[in-house]
Amino acid sequence: MAELDSPLATLAPAPAARPRVVSVRRMPPAVAARLDRDFAGAFAIDRDIDREESLALLEEHKAEALLFSSGFKLDAGFIEKLPARVKVAATCSVGFDHVDVAAAKSRGLVVTNTPDVLTGCTADLAFSLLLSAARRLPEADQMLRQDAWGPRAMGDFLGVRVWGQTIGIIGMGRIGRAVARRARGFDMRVLYHDAAQLPPALEEGGHYVADLDAMLGQCQFVSLHCPYSPATRHILNERTLGLLPPGAVVVNAARGGLIDEEALIDGLKSGRIAAAGLDVFEGEPRFDRRFIDLPNVALAPHIGSATVETRDAMGHRSLDNIAAVLSGRPAIDPLWS
Amino acid sequence: MTKPVLLLTRRFPDAVEARAQRDYITIPNPSDTPMDGATLATAAKDAGAQGILCAAGDPLGAATIAALPDSVKLLATFSVGTDHIDLAAARARGIAVSNTPDVLSVATAEIAFLLILAAARRGGESERMLRAGEWAGWAPTQLMGVTLEGKKLGILGMGRIGQALAKMARGFGMEIHYRNRKQLPPEEAAGAIYHADDAAFLGAIDVLSMHIPGGEATRNWLDARKIALLKRGAIVVNTGRGTTVDDVALCEALTKGHLRAAGLDVFAGEPKIHPGYLTTPNLVLLPHLGSATIETRDAMGFRCLDNLDAVLLRGAAPPHPVG
Fold it and tell me: To which CATH superfamily is domain B105-285 assigned?
């Protein structure tokens, strides 16, 4: 029998070497399980791994891939220090303003993101903040939890009706279009501003306004869904916020730097802006402490994509990208091609 | 012709008070002090009121109605619900009752949808974490909620509010199920799936939104047994009447994790609320804000005045009678 067994054993393919990855963020259970099963290397479990430590781990585990996310800066200095064998860096996010694309390109590093999979749930979160701000959820929930609900007048706690009002969407990509679809369910008139008008089939019943200033003057609600770049930094500032009609509601579930927070806080304090819903902040996780004391702002800690379904899909998509590149195939979601 | 006398039991929106003053001799309540039954009946008697503009929470039980003067022809309530009024006692005395249907449907549906989103996306916990200054940074597993796309919304009571809610939920890619006394005609159902049976309805859905009236027939409708029929991880929202939920059973299901989260705008015995709710984290609480938009409150007040005008100025039947 041994004579028969032995050639069979040598003919069996050696188990394929598992791709070696350093994963710096704690992943949802389903993604962590796939990392354990199909990949080798070092994976954040109880705590996240910082940049310094990640470089040491990439070296130690001879890793060829880095799995990271927003908040972990992939800047020129870091890219320069990456071991030469690192071929791909996959950010578990749709945004990539934390990536120095030029530096990655010149180093020949493939960088991928996770588009598509977080569209619906980011639009849900934006709309949740819109409704929370318009109908004053933060003040209301706090009052009840302090057991301070007493008799009140008809005029107390009046909010802004959402149904049938006009919303302006800045940035009509996938998430902007998903917000437009949700707004139409509230019988809202949808206006949008972007670099160019979309084909009618993609407009979701929205009307294109080429001039941002002209759009803002008509919007009871405005929601940001454009990428952050030097061109869009503080796109909502003292001047543009001043174009909104009195009592407007501002929503940002895109990037903190799109709004000049100083101007927003002024508007919220004076009441010229009725309310705001914010999932993102300039310089997060630190954020302007004045927001804490403002009753007319709904706050969330950058959880646009934080649903079980989406976080699993984002993690798996990142791993699909890594697996593709390390097996010699093209990346599925490269940041450039 | 002298203007009829109108008693206002609360302070109403400015535009509504102004129109009332134009057309009636008004007995206002500028300090908005809630009245007990005896005070209300005495005020009506002293003024010789022919109409009473009242609101939810006013004690218009059999005793108060018995004590009203004969001059009173109409109780116009600034609400859709009438569980604060003893309708049989009013009928026995020949006093008509009107309410304000339709005008608050979308405002209330908005609150229901807000609670669904806030429950699904952990709005209360997010708020509290940031305001406590406890945000340490973004993490892929922080405050994970659930996506609404593809989930099944179960609407209990498919009237105007339920139908407005269904339209909103379709924009979010939800599948609509409903439980109602009767099945809607296809043009009103708009594809929503009808359930003739509580158990099948509760077992099919991921999110329950309650829109049924109060009263003895629906007391504690959602009890421990019905909660157990919902899928593990389901979400419950109530913007109808607080009495329809068994508070203790709901708290327990939220604490033990059978339910993922809940959102409540109405409470049995409000403004007092069940103490267990104050400390339950996966719960969003609102102080009966269903109709609380400026546009809606004005429209409700005008609808009350339309009913009063019909009865007291034109001697006609109220356009929105109850009972």
Answer: NAD(P)-binding Rossmann-like Domain (3.40.50.720)
Q: Is the peptide bond before B101 cis (omega within 30 degrees of 0)?
A: no
- Residues of chain A contacting B206 with CB distance shorter than 8 Å: none
Portion 141-180 of A in contact with B at CB < 8 A: 141-145, 147, 149-164
Phi and psi (nearest 5°) for B38?
Answer: -65, -40
Q: What is the separation of C-alpha A247 from the centre of its chain, rounded to a whole number of angstroms?
A: 27
Nearest-CA residue of chain A relative to B114? A131
Read off the pLDDT of residues B258-274 as tens digits, 9 standing for 90 and up.
Answer: 999 999 999 999 889 99
Q: How far apart are the first and last CA of chain A?
A: 55
Render the burial of A260-289: b for 16+ CB within 10 Å, e for the rest: bbebbbebbeeeebbbbbbbbbbebeebbe
Count: domains in chain A: 2
- A97 and A244 in a single domain? The answer is no
Q: Which fold has domain B5-103+294-313?
A: Rossmann fold (3.40.50)
CA distance to partner chain B, nearest, from residue A1 (Å): 52
Q: Which of B31, B104, B115, B117 to mutate to test the interface with A (most CBs of A within 10 A)?
A: B117
Task: Report the alpha-carbon distance of residue B99 to residue A192 in Å, rounded.
Answer: 40
Q: Are the beta carbons of B266 and B238 closer than 8 angstroms?
A: yes
Strands A207-208 and A221-224, sheet pairing: unpaired
Q: Mind listing the pLDDT tens digit of every residue in chain A (337 residues)?
A: 333 344 444 444 445 689 999 999 999 999 999 999 999 999 999 899 999 999 999 999 999 999 999 889 999 999 999 999 999 999 999 899 999 999 999 999 999 999 989 999 999 999 999 999 999 999 999 999 999 888 776 777 899 999 999 999 999 999 999 999 999 999 999 999 999 999 999 999 999 999 999 999 999 999 999 999 999 999 999 999 999 999 999 999 999 999 999 999 999 999 999 999 999 999 888 899 999 999 999 999 999 999 999 999 999 999 999 999 999 999 999 999 8
Q: Which domain holds residue A246?
A: 119-299
Is residue B270 annotated as part of the catalytic site, yes or no? yes
| Same domain as A181, residue A322 | no
**ipTM of predicted assembly, 2 dp:** 0.85
- Domain ranges (residues) in chain B: 5-103+294-313, 105-285
Beta-carbon contacts of A170 under 8 Å, excluding residues fewer than 6 positions away, are A176, A192, A193, A194, A212, A222, A223, A224, A225, A226, A235
- Are A307 and B144 an interchain contact pair (Cβ–Cβ within 8 Å)? yes
Pick from A132, A151, A302: which is nearest to B138 by CB? A302
